[in-house]
Every structure is written in structure tokens, then in C-alpha cells.
TrEMBL record, chains A, B, C, D:
InterPro entries: Beta-lactam/transpept-like, Glutaminase. One of its GO terms (molecular function) is glutaminase activity. Transmembrane segments: none annotated. Homotetramer. Belongs to the glutaminase family. It catalyses: L-glutamine + H2O = L-glutamate + NH4(+). The keyword Signal does not apply. This is Glutaminase.
């Protein structure tokens, strides 16, 4: 397996230089673009990795999968009163659809949807970010994971569009808590620093019918696990979910920090990372690596 | 297997009466709503069916999968210049997105996308509908299949919205042939009458790496097959693709005639039919049957 | 007065070369851009003109005011069931609003609205274009006016977007007649050739409480006249109605042939013409001439 | 004149009961709906009024005309870099257009536009609300005018949608100051309490070529005055500007407190007030009174 991963790394490394590191906040713009790592964790506990798989990066939108999981554990089916399950067909931060659809975001993986999910968790936990950090540390089996305050403060400073979305949902009665407080927690979650190995392990429950081998915890039921994966497959890659299904064929979630997680149901959880993004905001080399992997092993679920 | 299918039929039959038969044209409105059939065709050639699985119905939008397959065989990757691969996030017949995105439909399964695909096939074949009919007859192993002229004429009479879409694409330079001529062929394809067994057999190649067992034909390559299934999974169920992934977890395509086809990759092709539709235009009892099937056998690809 | 007009001509002539002649159909693209004319017709029958005021041009969208007038005479207030009276806030040929507002166009001066008005006149007259031509000839006092068949045929050939709008309205039940037939008449009306003097005289009734001095005909009531002028002031200049109110301050209507008519209520009717258009599709030199006229004589109604 | 006003009052009083008092904040919902007042101030200093013309009410969006005037005095033509001059064709508080048009609001009279104008004034004055209050007191000739803190606090509490708009503009770089601070001043301006006589006098400069007779101040130039009136005529009545031009034919501005001001250029300024609103958010009896006035005296500028 690691030989295959090395050949893939060799194949996609030359793409570095053709994308663009996220630069909407200074704290992310400074990342060295010339990095690539991949980790694969199998349901039987084997771990494979190549490249900078131990280098921490900002998980950003990948945190939305943790938030959704936490909310599903507490709210169950009720949560779908406040957020939809359909692809958006619009950029991840658009307000147009949100206004037409009276403040109910299309799915939990666009920003508006993740803000509503954060608002749900905010209503539930006394210290929402700490609850989330604890949850992530446990799933990853890494008690040292933490949020990067420089990044989260910078996100907060440039919060205007997310604030706009949160206030619009509040205007439609779909936001319970103080907007500023929820934004702080939301950005703290996005700013968690993890590496490929952490993320592959943390999401292994999605490949394993909801079971997390290293904690012995049934994180979600088997049915809920297929549901989360179904949502990831249809809405996890911003405006590129269809393309990802076409090229890779796995449930996945990307972040503007350059990470992408992908799930091979019943077999593996994968995390690939490379900071440069394509035009849809997904890791350029990461997408290419997952496509090569899918082509060579025939891992598409389809 | 047939016992399971019978128990599912028993479970979903009571739903009949809660949906609404498509009534936008008289020829469809007259269908007896109290019907249900299901057929499953396995890759090893076994066929299971219960209910009215031998009763013909109007395949309607399910024909879009045949059109796409035919176009992919001829145009390959080039076809994606003219139609996208992303979920639309809008009703199947909306013009809003089409105008904002300068005449490139989001995917081949919304009406605008299927019209472009029909336009491609129109440029290729001397008699586009006959080429399509031949292709479908071969895949289904049924040389008697034909289009219902009463239905296709009625569709043509009420063509206004589809004509509007086709002309809008023509205005953007994304429509090559005469609008009226393409519409006639498009409606003839939609009006094909087939039963559950025909459709399960016809789409068996999507469950079998592109190979059609009963004709011995490699319809699509293995890679193309996963690609079509990936597109079906993200865009096949109108505005309910996410919900279908969440509840059923299989690539699928529905039609307003009440049919739904679904693919269990590497194992089975399924067709379920019941004429009453839910609010998203998908067969109410059909969706419920597929969900029950998915829950009981754990067939979700996710 | 003619001295003032000459000074204005001198002032705006240098703008020619900075705009762009309409080129969406070949028949219009061939017009010599270096032309400018203006005619002012006073309620007491005096006529002033400079430049190429006797040169015929394609009236295009200015014909929408004739169509509206004819429809108001026959349908009165009833006509507002089928077309609105509000500015569109969208390009003149957009379908987005039309879909959101279920086939009721915003006002009679955007294309969709003018098509509905043409459809009304089509239901009323045996030969709709001839009725319209007769009406225009009478108002202009010029029995030789006719439509340019080369232009109207060319418009018809490139009818795709207008056909798309008409079919969309038909889909919503707001179009009574055959789409192709109405389009033919609509394009024949747009292709009428008239000069500045013809148009200034033809619209003199809008400056004269509905009365046409040279025919002795009360074309509209006094109240209807202020209503038409009110609609022209809020919706007559495509996407530039607000700017026209700000810069010129008169009810007016433009056409892509480069003509603009403007009304000084109770005093004058004006027609200015120069083929090059600005980015909003209004005559560049024409707009400048009307602004200079408004500034120098203080003719703004505001 | 007062006899005419009394006959109009008699005619429209029966309409009270058919509209609906603004109830989006409690402080406005409590107003007694059974009230009507009108005041007309002529350029020669005569004042006519009937009904509750001395009863104070919340001026709400009418304040947007004061804000625009103040900004025009300071920024001149430069201000149009940040706000457009076109009718919006959308509800007054929509974010859709604002997102498509990258944060530049359509005109200064929709909420987003007024927020940008408030932001401009905020950058200019040390105490923006006090500067505005001083300006209004002077124009109205009433040093006792003040803002209703109960109303402005209530507006602030329910600020979500306005906050959403302000943050969206900030995200596009079209908002300079702290969102919360500008909102406070904006709501304080909206919550000014004035009566019909105050408002008729305060806006007399718009009827008098920019000159305010009772202060002897040239508030705007003659040209700027026609420009403000032109914008009021095309964008002053929310989604009903075209209908207002059709029915009334005067530049005007309404507020959800039930007030409407209207200008008869070179002759009169008018303020009418009645708290119940029609479906577009404009005073029901107020609109009817202005239409009756326009019909009986023929005051339409068109």
C-alpha cells in the first residue's frame, strides 16, 4: 500500500504550483504551499502514510463533519427541521438560496448549514468549543490537539460574510444563540490543527459502521453512518460534489486548509493534504491523489 | 428474495392514496394509481419480481439515463463541454440557473441537460428516436418496446416550458438542431413504455461494470460505469438527491410515470414502480420500498 | 430653439466613436454609426430639428409604446392582469424574474412585457401588424411608413431568447396565441423605419394630454396619458431608468436602433437619434443630448 | 384648498380597517390605526392641513431622504461609487440583489442603500445622529424634534436582517464603520417622531429648487434637487414606485410608520399620514389620498 501511495505522491507533486493557497485571511495565506501528505487507516487498525502526514494544518471545513456528528448524537432526526439534506448548487457562502428558502440552509456542509449546526451544539453544551475539542481529541486518539488562536481570531476579524448569514437566519427565526458567541466557537472549531494521521483515525468510525476501534466507542449507529456518508457524497465537496462523485466516487469532505477526508465504506478512512486549492476551493493535488487512488484500486463506491 | 419483496410490497401498499399521479398532461393523469411492482435482476442472471412488474408504464425521465449512455459512447469526455456534472439545487425545470450559467445546464438529468444530450444525439443519428428505441430494445432484451404516441403528442402539445429551455440554450449557442425536431424526439423517448422487468434488465450493465450479460455487450467501460453511477447518486432524483442518498444510499433515477431505477454496484439492478408521486415528483411508494429494501439488506453503498 | 439644438449637436457629436452599434443581428450592425439627429415638436405645432432628423432608422423598442397605447385603448385597466407596472431591476431580456413571478412580466417595456402586449393585440386584430402600422402612420402623419422585412426576418432568425420568454409565459398560462405568429408581428413592429420627425409627431399626444393635434384625435384620455408617462419615467430606459430620471428627468423610451423619445408634458415631444449605444443599450450621444437639453432649459419634470 | 383636503379625508377615512399597522416591532404595533392627517406647504409659505396633522408619528424610512440629502451635500457625485440610482425590482430588504451586485445597493431608498448612506455620514460626523437631528430640526423649523428611544431600541433588538445586509456589504468592502454603531444611528434616525406639518415644511426645499424658505438656506442646488426628486420618483415607494407614478405621478417617499411625503415641483410639499399599510408596506389611506389629490387637481408631473 505505501508503495502505491508513494507512486501517487510522485504523480501529483508536480501539480503543486498550479493552485492557490487560501488567502482570505492572512493566517492561512502564509502556509508553505509545497507540501503533500496522505494517510490511510484501515478498519483492522493498519496505518499507511507518505509525505507530510504528520504535519499539522488547519482543518477548517472538515470540522463541519465533527459538528454534524455531535449534533446527530444529540438531536437525531429532529435536527433536520433546521437544516436540509440537499446539495446547494450554489457557492458555499451564498446568501441567495438562504433568503429564498426562508433561512433553512440546504445542508450541514455549506457555511450557513454549519452555522446552524454550531448554534444547535451551542444550545446544548456549556462550553461548546471545549466539548467539540474533547470529542475530536478522543476520536483522533490525540489529547494534544488544539485550536490555533491566531487563525480563529483572524477568521473572526474577517467574519463579515459568516455574520451576515447568521443574522439572516436569525431574522428568519432559525438561530437561537448570540451570533457573535456562536461565531467565536465556529471559528475555534475550524481552526483546529490536525495532521493526516489524526484525521484518518478520527473519521475511521465512518468507514466502520459507526464504530471507533481505538476508543471502542459506537460513535453513530450503523444506519446513521450510512446517512452521514450519503450526505458527504452529495454535499461534501462544495460546488464540486458531482465532479468528486464522477472522478473519485467516495464520500468526502474538504477544507480550505487543503485537507480532504474520504471514506471507503467498510474498509478505510483516508486523509490527504496539500495547501494549494483549485477554483472550487478544494485541494488541487489532494483531488488528483484521490482520483489516482480511485482509478488504481477501483475504490469508487459506484 | 421474493419473500422479502413481498413483505416490502405489503408494507408500502398502504401508502397508495397519499401521493398524486402526474397530471400535467391528460395522457398521464388517467393512470390507475393503485399499482405497485418491483423487479430485481442480479449480475448472475437471476430475476426476482412481485406485484405489477410486467405492467408497462411511461418511463419518462428514466429515459435520460439511456440518452446519456448513448451520448457518452459517442462523445466521451467532450460532452462535458455542453452540460455540467453538478447537482442543480433547483427544480428540474427551472430556467433561473440556466440563465445565470449562460445556457450550460447543471447535469444531464434535469430537463435542460437532457435536452442538450438529446440535441447531441440528434446531431449524430439520422433517426435519433429510432436509434434510441433500438438501443433500449437491445438492452432490455425486448424487441417489442415502443413509444406511446398519445403520450408523446400530448407532451408536445404542452411543450411550452421545455421549448422555453431549449430556446434559451439556443440563445446562448448551446443548441445545434431545430428546437421543434429535438423536442419531438425527446418526447418520443420519454414516452417509451416499459415494465419493471424490462428496466431492471436494461440497466443491468450499470451494476455489472458496464457489461450487459444477455447481449454480451460491453455498453460502457468499467470507469464510465462508475462515473454514470456517481452522477446518478448526486443528481438522479430531482430535488431529492440528498434525501435519496440519506434514505436509500444507491445511485438511482426516477421518472414522473412513477418508475425508479436503482443500482447496487457489482450485484443488482432494481426497478420499482408505483404511479403516485411525492412532492418532489418521485414515486411515493417506490421511494418507501427502496428505503425498506436498503434498511433490511443494508445495500447502501455508503 | 434650433440654435440651441445646433449647439447641443456640436457638443455631443464628439462622443460618436465611444459607443457601439447594436450587432446582435447583421441587419442592424451595418448602420453607419456617425449619425445624429434631433427633432422637437411643440404642442402649438412648431417643429424644430437639426442633424439627420429626416433619416429613417429602425425604431425597435420604441414600438413598445405604440403597442401599449393600442392595448390600453382596447383593454383599459384589465390589461394590468397580465403585465405589471413596476421597474424590473433586471436586464430587458432576463427570464429569471419571469420565472419567479410566474409568467407575469414586470412592465410593458421589457421584452417579456411587450410580448404579452403583442399577444393581447394579436387576440384583438385580424391583422395585428397592419393595424399597428395603420395606427403609427396616422399618428406620425406619414402614410408611407413601413417595416423593414430584412430586419424583421433577421430578428426572427435570431428569435431564440424572445421565443424562450414567450414559451415560458405560455407555460404559465399568460400567452394566448401561437408563439411563432406573435413573434412575427412583434418583430415587424420593431422593424418599422421612421425618422426623428415622424417619431416626435407620433408621440405628440403624450405631451398634449392625449390629444393628437394633426389628426384631431384624442388618442388616450388625459388621465391615461399621465399614466403612460409615469410608466415611461419609471421603466422606459431598460436598466437605466433611475439614471435617466436623475440626468434628464423626462418620461422617455429608447430603442437599440439608437432612437430615444422623450416627453416634456404639456409642452413638447422630442426624438433624438444616434446609432451607437452605451453599456445599457441606450443611445450614447442621444442620452448626452437629452441631458444637455435638460440642463440648459431646465425641462426636468422634477 | 382645505375644503378639498377635507373632502379627500372624508373619502379615504372609510379605508381605515382594510390595511395593517406595521408589527415587526412591538413599539410600532401599538399605534392606534384610526388616524389620518395631511399637510400641504406651498412655496409661498401657506400651510394647509386637516385631520391629525399635528400628531407625531415615527418617520421611519422617510428619514432616508434626509440622510441622502446630508450625504449629497458632503460627497457630491462621489457618493454614487457606493450606491446605485436604479429601482431595485425587489423587496426593500432583500439580500439577493446585493449579493449578485457585489455589495453595491441599487439605490439609497432600500434598506441596504440607506445603510451605506448612514455609513458615509458616520465617517463624516463625530456624532452622526445628533448631526442628523440638528439638520432635521432646522429644516422643519422645530427645535423640539427627537428620536423615540423605545422604538429605536426595539428596532435594534430586531436588527437581524439589517445587520445581515450591513455585514454582507462589509464582506464586499462597502462598509467602513463598525456595523453595530452604524445600526444604532440608523435606527435613531428612523425613530424620529414628527408630524405632517413638520415633514411638509422640512421637505419644502425639494419643491422649491433646493431653497428652504423659513431658514433662508439653499439646502441643495437646483440641479441636485431635480436629481433627488428623480430618484424619489423611480425608487421612493419600495416595490410600488411604478404604481405610484401611474396613480399619483409625484416624487415621493413612504415609511412603515404610515407617513408619505410627496413633492409637487415648484409648488408644494405634501405629507400625508395614516398608520395602516397596504401589502407593499405603504400607507393605504395615504396612497388613496394622494391619488385623489392628483386626480382632482391634476398635479401629476407627467
Amino acid at each position: 500500500m505505501e508503495e502505491l501511495l508513494r507512486s501517487i505522491e510522485e504523480k501529483v507533486r508536480p501539480l503543486i504550483g498550479q493552485g492557490k493557497v487560501a488567502d482570505y485571511i492572512p493566517a492561512l495565506a502564509n502556509v508553505n504551499p509545497d507540501q503533500f501528505g496522505i494517510a490511510i487507516y484501515s478498519n483492522d487498525g493498519a496505518l499507511y502514510h507518505v509525505g507530510q502526514a504528520k504535519k499539522n494544518f488547519s482543518i477548517q471545513s472538515i470540522s463541519k463533519v465533527f459538528s454534524l456528528t455531535l449534533a446527530m448524537k444529540h438531536y437525531g432526526e429532529d435536527m433536520w427541521q433546521r437544516v436540509g439534506r440537499e446539495p446547494s448548487g450554489n457557492p458555499f457562502n451564498s446568501l441567495v438560496q438562504l433568503e429564498y428558502e426562508v433561512g433553512i440552509p440546504r445542508n450541514p456542509f455549506i457555511n450557513a448549514g454549519a452555522l446552524v449546526v454550531s448554534d444547535m451544539n451551542h444550545s446544548r453544551f456549556a462550553s461548546p468549543h471545549y466539548a467539540m475539542r474533547e470529542f475530536i481529541r478522543r476520536l483522533a486518539g490525540n489529547p494534544k490537539l488544539r485550536s490555533d488562536k491566531v487563525v480563529s481570531n483572524s477568521e473572526y476579524e474577517f467574519r463579515a460574510r459568516n455574520a451576515s448569514m447568521a443574522y439572516l437566519m436569525k431574522a428568519f427565526g432559525n438561530f437561537e444563540n448570540d451570533v457573535e458567541a456562536v461565531l467565536h466557537n465556529y471559528f475555534d472549531n475550524c481552526a483546529m490543527r490536525m495532521n493526516c494521521i489524526d484525521l484518518a483515525k478520527a473519521f475511521s468510525f465512518l468507514a466502520n459502521k459507526g464504530y471507533c476501534r481505538h476508543t471502542g466507542e459506537q460513535v453513530l449507529t450503523r444506519r446513521e453512518t450510512t446517512q452521514v456518508n450519503g450526505l458527504l457524497a452529495t454535499s461534501g465537496l462544495y460546488d464540486e460534489a458531482g465532479n468528486f462523485a464522477y472522478r473519485v466516487g467516495l464520500p468526502g469532505k474538504s477544507g480550505v486548509g487543503g485537507g480532504i477526508i474520504a471514506i471507503v465504506p467498510n474498509r478505510f478512512s483516508i486523509c490527504v493534504w496539500s495547501p494549494e486549492l483549485n477554483e472550487s476551493g478544494n485541494s488541487l493535488a489532494g483531488m488528483a491523489a484521490l482520483e489516482a487512488l480511485s482509478e488504481s484500486i477501483g475504490w469508487s463506491v459506484f
